[in-house]
């Protein structure tokens, strides 16, 4: 009888681990994280190309702004059509909201980059990478509840 009870206790503990993983494996969040990784890769790629092409002749903060704009233009359709499919807002309204959220993180980059580059001494791409890593969890909440919200959920 003790053996049966201990086996049941072990089974309950192993099921608890799987139950804890279910919210993490939610398909929408995984798609969003993949989109965030894609966005980061595009942004860093554009910024890296711009830094290489400019070879120090253009301030890196200006290159960050330009690559940010290019990234937003390139990734918005993916977020609109794949990640947040339920949006009923017009494309223009959705894009403006999307860009407004992006501007808040661009602002964080424009403040954080000089600190990480000039004070800490990190290369521009590494510093931008650190800043980009913190944005997906925050932007997910903002995009889900404001940028791409269903019209009736105001």
What would your notes on this structure say?
The chain has 5 helices and no strands. The model is unreliable at 5-9 (pLDDT under 50). The chain is an all-alpha fold and 154 residues long.
Sequence-ordered SSE layout with sheet pairings:
Elements: H1 2-21, H2 27-54, H3 60-83, H4 91-120, H5 124-147
The number of distinct β-strands equals 0
Strand content: under 5%
| Unreliably modeled segments | 5-9
Mean pLDDT: 79
Q: What structural class should be given to the helix and strand makeup?
A: mainly alpha
The rounded distance between the terminal residues' Cα atoms is 57 Å
Helix content: over 70%
Summarize the helix and strand pattern as letters. Answer: HHHHH
**Biggest β-sheet: count, sense, barrel?**
none
Q: Please state the oligomeric state of the protein chains shown.
A: single chain
In brief:
By secondary structure, this protein is mainly α. The chain has 5 helices and no strands.
Keywords:
mainly alpha, 0% strand
